[in-house]
Design brief:
alpha+beta, binds zinc ion, 6-stranded antiparallel β-sheet, Thiol Ester Dehydrase, Chain A, 35% strand, OB fold (Dihydrolipoamide Acetyltransferase, E2P), 5-stranded mixed β-barrel
Length: 314
């Protein structure tokens, strides 16, 4: 089977990168320092004692980061490996997991150096995202005091399982907290959450109430009436996926209007404004909810101008 021969040959070529340097002689841009430690602790909500005399061990990778300008020391081998994977169609990348091992605390003033090695390249694996190869890289982080820790991270270089057209509108991210909203949309209901504790309405959906903290809630179906509270007109960049949603300008890409709609119930919703040219959208303009069938899988709530009697509904 020629395909299997090719696959085996390809795997041998990429496996040959195991043990090769990914980064050699990397140097931290700044010494371990108290401001960075303080920012980190604030961001993490860590109000414990002991900092910033000692850097939190989980900051290990922070001291190696190159920032926007990147850092020197990245090896050609690592880029070659990625180019091989790209060339074989494994063009997408996702970070899958990371393990760290802490050997010694880092203290303000210490200078960090690091080296990284391609530790392993997996055989081809089928995943939900697509088929590809896991690449594990191990970084050893040192300072004047010796090895401080290791940072092992794994990425998957893969060929996407389903080719998604750039012309396809991006899918909403549906999770436990907002699944009910999207189930409502599928039934052509725009559901607002109402707190079970204090009856405050909220949108977008959240697991708890911002006013009283209650996790109890029920839903109220929006009447569909609203007004444009604010809006922007999208000119650039032009995303083909967003070009067809405004039937006032069929087939045209940007510009199009995105409104912050004040619903009659009082909450605000961001969505497209349809049925009116983008330059005719005005603050205070009445709009009415409708459901746009974007494609065979996706329905979105949008707001049609109620100012223009174009009679083009549906
Ligand atoms: Zn409440």
């Amino acid at each position: 089977m020629p395909d299997e021969d090719f696959d085996q040959d390809f795997y041998e070529r990429i496996k040959a990168y195991e043990g090769r340097a990914a980064v050699t002689g990397g140097e931290g841009k700044d010494p371990v320092n108290e401001p960075m430690i303080r920012h980190w602790c604030e961001a993490m909500g860590d109000t414990g004692t002991g900092y910033p005399a000692v850097a939190p061990p989980t900051m290990l990778q922070v001291w190696t980061m190159g920032g926007l300008s990147g850092h020197t020391g990245r090896s050609a081998a690592y880029d070659e490996l990625f180019a091989l994977l790209d060339g074989a169609g494994f063009t997408s990348v996702v970070a899958t997991d990371c393990e760290q091992e802490y050997l010694r605390p880092l203290r303000p003033g210490e200078r960090v150096t690091f080296d990284a090695v391609v530790e392993s390249v997996s055989p081809r694996k089928a995943t939900k995202l697509g088929t590809g190869h896991f690449v594990t890289t191990r970084m050893d982080v040192r300072s004047e005091g010796g090895l401080a820790g290791t940072h092992r991270f794994r990425i998957l270089k893969y060929a996407p399982a389903r080719r998604t057209s750039k012309d396809r509108r991006p899918r909403p991210v549906i999770n436990r907290d907002n699944a009910g909203f999207w189930e409502g949309v599928a039934r052509h209901w725009l559901l607002i959450q109402r707190c079970g504790g204090c009856a405050t309405l909220r949108f977008p959906w959240l697991p708890g109430c911002n006013s009283c903290g209650s996790a109890e809630w029920e839903t109220v179906e929006a009447s569909g009436a609203g007004t444009v509270y604010s809006y922007v007109v999208m000119h650039h960049p032009q995303f083909p996926a967003f070009s067809a949603s405004d039937d006032a300008s069929p087939g045209r890409a940007a510009p199009y209007a995105v409104g912050l709609i004040q619903l009659a119930e009082g909450v605000r919703v961001i969505s497209n404004i349809t049925g009116v040219p983008h330059d005719k959208v005005r603050i205070g303009m009445p709009v009415e909810l409708e459901f746009l069938g974007v494609d065979e899988e996706l329905t979105l709530p949008v707001f049609r101008s109620a100012d223009h009697g174009e009679g083009g509904r549906g």
